[in-house]
Every structure is written in structure tokens, then in C-alpha cells.
Amino acid sequence: MFDRPCPSVLRHLALAGLALCIAPLTRAEGLSYEDALYLAGQSPAVAARQAALASANSARRAAGQLPDPRLVAGIDNLPVTGADRYALTRDQMTMRRIGIEQDMPTAARRDAQRERAEALEWRERVAVARERLRVQHEAAMAWLTRSARGVSVLTCCPPRRARSRRGAGSPR
After folding, report:
1. Do residue 112 and residue 54 come from a single domain?
2. How distant, in Å, are the alpha carbons of 19, 20, 89, 159, 171 from that of 153?
3. Which of 29, 80, 118, 162 has the greatest count of CB atoms below 10 A from its CB?
4. What does the pLDDT look like over 43-88, one tens digit per residue?
5. Please, which pLDDT band fits residue 157 given cuts at 50, 70 and 90?
């Protein structure tokens, strides 16, 4: 189904790998990089996605099953006017019925319900992973920003030259 990984996932993995390489060299005050990622993975947004996954899992298990049978009871053709009103035995057209009914959907329809439920469960699994990566990425960026505050920008990056105000086509 997936021929190659999504570019955003690769970007997240590259950032996580970079952060893991930098982590032993520098520490944020009071919170390690691993702890920050762990706490980000426990965020309410991830918990909400996991609850949606649990719901989709329950729906998948119920999909494609036969509906529950129903108990039916009733009175047909009960007279409501005249001398025989509300009498169950005096009018020959009055019928009493009691029974059990069950709908029987076709096998193809039940298979389609199962496939749809499996697809929805897969979508929720991907959403959980995506949300976990998103919050961990945000935590990693915040941790790296905080840990790098003491490092001067000039020590890690060469200074940029000011661009001239001439047009792009003018000779230098």
C-alpha cells in the first residue's frame, strides 16, 4: 500500500536522530531529552487519539455481524368504535400477534461493513502515530531551543553577507 515513506515522517525521524546525537552533548536544565519526548507522548492530544482508536477497534469487532433479533407484539384490526370497541374476541378480523424478527443483510453487505471498519481502524492507528510524532517533534524543538539558548548563534553559524540592493540580473 505504501511504496515509500512520507517526507514529513522522514523529516521527523531526521530531527529526532539529530536531537539524539546532540542530547549527550547538551542538557536542558532539569529535563532530559528522553524525558521530554516521553512526556510529550503522554499528552492529552495523543490520549484522545488513542481513545478514538479504541472506539474504532470496538466498531471493527462489531462490524459485519447479524443485527440483534427483535421481539414483536401487536394487535391488528382492533375495533375502536361501535358496540365491539376494544373487544379482542368479538370481531373475527381482530388478530393478535407475537414473535421474533431478525433482519438478514447479504454477505456482501456484511463484508463491506467489515472492510470499512478495518479501514477506519487503520486510519485511527495512523492518526495516533501522526499525533505522537507531532507532539514529540514540538517537544524536541522546544527542548533543543531551550538547551541551545546559551550557545551564541555566531559560534555555530558563519555570518551572512548582506545582499546588495541591486536587481537579480545586475552583474556583481
Report:
1. yes
2. 18, 21, 97, 9, 31
3. 118
4. 999 999 999 999 999 999 999 898 899 999 998 888 888 888 888 8
5. very low
